Amino acid sequence: MKKDITVLGLGKSGISAANLATKLGYNVFASDTSSSNKTKKLSKNVITEFGHHSDKILNSDIIIKSPGIKSTIEILKKTRTKKIPILSEVSFALSNSKYKKIVAVTGTNGKTTTADLISKIINSEHKNSIVVGNIGVPLSDKALKTTKNTYITMELSSYQLEDTPNFRANISILLNITPDHLNHHKTMKAYIKAKENIFINQSQNDFLILNYDDKICRKLAKKAKSKVIFFSKKPIKNGVFYDDNKIVIQIAKRHFEIKPKIKIVGMHNVENILASVAATYIAGIHLTSIEKVISKYKGVSHRIEFVKSINGVSYYNDSKATNIDSTRVALESFDKNINLIMGGKDKGVPYTPLKQLIKKKVKSVFLIGEAASKIKRDLGYSGVFFESKSLEKALKQAYKNSNDGDIVLFSPACSSFDTFTNFEERGAIFKTLVNKLDK
To answer: What is the pTM of this model?
Structure first.
């Protein structure tokens, strides 16, 4: 007899989970509170409802909850009283996947770059390698194509990890932890606890890679049952570190050095590279392959991505900067003369940590989106502000107010959901608008 599965939320991962469930022979019902119909990429066999979560959900054998849906909503309270199992898309997809190794990456910032680079390094020696998760492709899309030789690299957000308490990877990476998503998690303690799920179920045969330079990450090493390997921008006794333009690997009394030609800007990217080196070295990839891939690597779209130069002004798309710390990192990547476009949907975190950096490096700030007034209030008079409202208007104003040698940096420090579907759409629109400026 077929089991009944309900998928709550029809974002990218929800649609993917629903389609996987139909392929596996389940009766699938999907429920989304949005009023818009999202069935374009959905299997025709899926029964849907929009605009609310009805009590039809209570007839399910299993519920797959999309990340971002709060566990406290009324329908989930009812399902718990009926003891219906609630799974995340990650859990459901992993239970239907085969693999040789799982490498999992989380952190407030740098997840996408690190996961992307790790997958490219592994892929240089193992063609049966995939990268999935928060990076854009849900594992449910690829689960049935995996084999016992597949290397799965996963980027996991706090939302995904919160819903996947039984998760276990062979190699886990925690890059950094700074305040983010407090509108969802409410407290830093809850946010950190969600992140801990990336390693909390590991055994002594597994590996946890931690940022030694991040105080929270360093403290979390005490909770790990797995082998802990630190990485650092400065020399440390054991681990992977950066020293005099070299990457040094000092693990288990073995010492190696590589000197890749790093193309991606910023010390934050050096951290991402160090974590990637640690993970792929542990995974058994040869150092010559690691060095070669890093030397060719140009980064990911929407993260301090150079778009073009117009009249001596360089335009950068940093739409992936959906929090304060990401924008801080972007600002630190340039010397001065920055014209900063920021704003979007507020995430419940103050913008005051950016005040001194903006005062030091930024000529003008162009504010857009719902968070504009809060940003201006938090930053006070640390710069010249333009209340631009729309991205298009902000870019035109930045274009007029920029001189030869300036930087125009789009680094929102906010999520995109007030105006755009996601940060990818937001970044793509920014790039399109930049390419129209000098025409």
So the answer is: 0.80
